[in-house]
Amino acid sequence: MIKLIVTDIDGTLVPDGANEVNPQLYDQILRLREAGIQFAAASGRQWRSIERLFEPVKEKIFYISDNGAYVGCCGRNLFLTPIDRQVVLEMVKDVRGCPDLDIMVSGPDVVYLETDNQEFIKWMVDSYRFEVKQVPDLTQVQDEFIKISVYKKHGVEE
């Protein structure tokens, strides 16, 4: 008997960066729940982005976000796997040496950015609907870190 259905979001349920799912999915999730089957959305997105995507059923699903570092339901953190702070600080310093890269460091509830790249910030907020906080220095952020992402607009294959 099936007890849980887990699905990826970007590239599976929606095109990369989309901020809406097919509304029929909400009805299907409710039918699954009535049948005793749980639904979880898994993604590299932050949990708030997933919650916004599944707004009509947000209290009925589980979130597996930040590539598995955060598991939650109903706005509550059920499981969190922080990254060693020293590892994060070293990576931030390394990425700073590459001027064409932007780095994001995710805490449980917000993504921290020290970039001035407004196009990148707008993309994170408008497309993925991330909760973003721009800071002058990522190494001074006092939060647990659960994910590190590095972004390069062009030529990432090089």
Helix/strand class: alpha/beta
How big is the Rg? 17 Å
**Percent of sequence in beta strands:** 15-25%
Sheet of most strands = 5 strands, mixed
Provide the residue-averaged pLDDT. Answer: 93
CATH fold name of the largest domain: Rossmann fold
Give the total of beta strands: 9
End-to-end separation in angstroms reads 47 Å
What is the CATH first-level class name of the largest domain?
A: Alpha Beta
CATH architecture classification name of the largest domain:
3-Layer(aba) Sandwich
Helix content, binned percent: 10-25%
Organism: Candidatus Caccovicinus merdipullorum
GO cellular component, one term: cytosol
GO molecular function: magnesium ion binding; phosphatase activity
Protein name: HAD family phosphatase
In short:
The chain is an alpha/beta fold and 158 residues long.
Helix-strand layout with pairing:
Elements: E1 4-8, H1 24-34, E2 38-42, H2 47-53, E3 62-65, E4 70-73, E5 76-80, H3 85-96, E6 102-106, E7 111-113, H4 118-126, E8 132-134, E9 147-151
Parallel strand pairs: 1-2, 2-3, 7-8
Antiparallel strand pairs: 3-4, 4-5, 6-7, 6-9
InterPro entries: HAD-like_sf (IPR036412), HAD-SF_hydro_IIB (IPR006379), HAD_sf (IPR023214)
GO cellular component, one term: cytosol
Protein name: HAD family phosphatase
